[in-house]
Amino acid sequence: RDRRPVSAVELRGTAHRYLRGMLTAAVDPMLEPWRAAGLGDPYLVRTVDLQPSYWLVPVVSNSRVLGYVEVAADGRVLGHAYLYRSVENLDACPSVVTRLTASEASREAAPILGGYAGAQLTDPVFIHDGPRNKLAWMVEVWVEDELISRVFITPGYVYEHKGGEARPPPGTRGW
After folding, report:
1. 12-26, 46-60, 109-123, 148-162: segment of lowest average pLDDT
2. Distance between CA atoms of 21 and 24, rounded to whole angstroms?
3. Under 8 Å between Cβ of 153 and 98
4. Phi first, then psi: what are they for 90, rounded to 5°?
5. Which residues contact residue 89 at a Cβ distance below 8 angstroms, ignoring those fewer than 6 apart?
6. pLDDT tens digits for 29-47?
7. Beta pairing partners, 143
8. Which helix (H) or strand (E) holds 14?
9. What is the 8-class DSSP label of residue 140?
10. Nearest 10 degrees: CA dihedral of 102, 57, 173, 158?
11. Is the dihedral of CA 138, 59, 17, 79 positive or negative?
12. Is residue 42 within 8 Å of residue 57, measured between CB atoms?
């Protein structure tokens, strides 16, 4: 299949077919809330290098995102994820598929970003930092034409990769 961009209609169609198949065969009680849910607007996830990687198609009910279907750039379904731990507590689900808005991510990162007076800061971009399931907002910090830091924001914590730092071994928290 070619690498042309996949439209929002195609992405929702792919997610709908995937969900219909899962719900038909479902024995997992965690899927029950998805039966009455709809699909929201697909959201592009990029790599740390800002390349398009895959799409999240949110599963939405009562203005809450219950989870999402991951769809590759070529239209293949990669998997799905729940954004709740129990079907009895759906009110704790986020209102956006990224779990934080870009504005909220900027506010969370302010303590770190405030230390870079005079630097240029990019707008937050939603990325996966390495593994596909390691989702975060990212703000790049530039001085002149040099990238000096990347700040990553998740609902649980904020971490930073400074330019020139060696990455620690896989599995180290924050990497």
Report:
1. 12-26
2. 5
3. no
4. -75, -15
5. none
6. 899 999 999 999 999 999 9
7. 146
8. helix 8-25
9. E
10. 10
11. positive
12. yes
Among residues 96, 70, 67, 69, the alpha carbon closest in space to that of 82 is found at: 67
More confidently predicted of 53 and 74? 53
* Cα distance between residue 130 and residue 76, in whole Å: 20
Show the tokens assigned to 124: 């937050």
How many C-beta atoms lie closer than 10 Å to residue 31's C-beta? 20
Please give the model's pTM, rounded to 2 decimal places: 0.86
CB 45 within 8 A of CB 131: no
- Report the alpha-carbon angle 26-30-35, nearest 5: 60
d(CA 125, CA 121): 11
